[in-house]
Amino acid sequence: MTDQPAPLAVVTGAAGGIGRAVTVALTGSGHRVLGVDVEPAGDPAAYASLVADVAVPGQVERLFARIHERYGQPTVLVNNAGVYHARDFLDYDPKTYAQVLDVNLGAAFFCTQAFARALVDAGRPGAVVNVASISGQFGSPDAAYGASKGACIALTRSLGRALAEHRIRVNAVAPGLVDTPMADRIPVERRNDYRARIPVGRFGSPAEIAAAVAWLAGPESSYVTASVLDVNGGLH
To answer: What are the BP-aspect GO terms (predicted)?
Structure first.
């Protein structure tokens, strides 16, 4: 009797603060984690680190083909890749706007498509967790970011319903303010205002977001799909 390999998970944006924490959490729950990022720096907690720009559909196709060839069939996908520019609406140009939508929405769309197609062909169940944002629920001074995360939430609810018949669950976490390098781009005055309005009185940690992601990716949430889990310290 041979031992079965640990289940395989793919995490995009794995070099960032939340991505690294998700890698640690999923590794701790028994997954082999493939960390994907546009940056070549790998996460020591990852089973393997891969470089790809998931905002480019052609690279997504090649990425998942390479994963299947080298590592096997992933059954968990965490769409965490994201960009935030803290830019005023009047200062946006078409190229930057397109980048925000391509990374924060397009990457989740095409990564989930490649992931789900293989699972459907194999007749296997799976779980997708999208990392959205409170900005997608209530808006953001960075209008492109807020719009992209709102669309990510709509995509989550749509795919959760569309893929349910294939036993593929799709959910999202919607973090509030989290202590990461991305959050450091928020102007200090705005950061202080946000902190003052958070009922628990502090920003979240990447590990707290990762714990929610790991729960949605695991068997304990088997009856949860097309849902968004708020992890925001009560900020509304």
So the answer is: fatty acid elongation
Over residues 115-141, the pLDDT tens digits come to 999 999 999 999 999 999 999 999 999
Cα–Cα distance, 221 to 171 (Å, whole number):
10
* 60 vs 168: CA distance, rounded Å: 19
Range of the domain at 161: 8-230
Q: Is 179 among the domain residues?
A: yes
How many independent structural domains does the chain possess? 1
Catalytic residue among 47, 71, 84, 145: 145
Q: Are 33 and 46 in contact (CB under 8 A)?
A: yes
Instruction: Provide the whole-model pTM.
Output: 0.96
Whole-angstrom distance, CA of residue 221 vs CA of residue 207: 19
235: in domain: no
Instruction: Verify whether residue 194 is a known catalytic residue.
Output: no
Residue 2 in domain: no
Per-residue pLDDT band for 1 (boundaries 50, 70, 90) equals: very low
Return the ∠ at Cα 9 (arms to 148 and 65), rounded to 5°: 85
